[in-house]
């Protein structure tokens, strides 16, 4: 998650686009952060938290895929 959400990292997952599969895959990441924040969110640095939040938030102005999630 740290590498995948860091735009400076070669393993960056990339920015989300309309109808992007990454939107579907981001749901379990958000859920994990919500229910296990002591293990997955709290240990992150401020910059890492910013990267994760920016990556998750990048879907906000995009068209969402019609899925069963």
Automatic annotation (TrEMBL):
Residues 2-69 form the DUF2264 domain. It comes from the Eukaryota. InterPro entries: DUF2264_N, UCP014753. Pfam families: DUF2264. PANTHER family: LINALOOL DEHYDRATASE_ISOMERASE DOMAIN-CONTAINING PROTEIN. This is DUF2264 domain-containing protein.
């Amino acid at each position: 998650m740290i590498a995948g959400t860091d735009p400076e990292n070669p393993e960056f997952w990339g920015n989300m686009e309309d109808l992007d599969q990454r939107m579907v895959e981001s749901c379990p990441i958000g859920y994990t952060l919500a229910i296990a924040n002591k293990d997955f969110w709290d240990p992150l640095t401020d910059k890492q938290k910013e990267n994760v939040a920016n990556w998750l938030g990048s879907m906000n102005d995009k068209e969402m895929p019609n899925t069963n999630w």
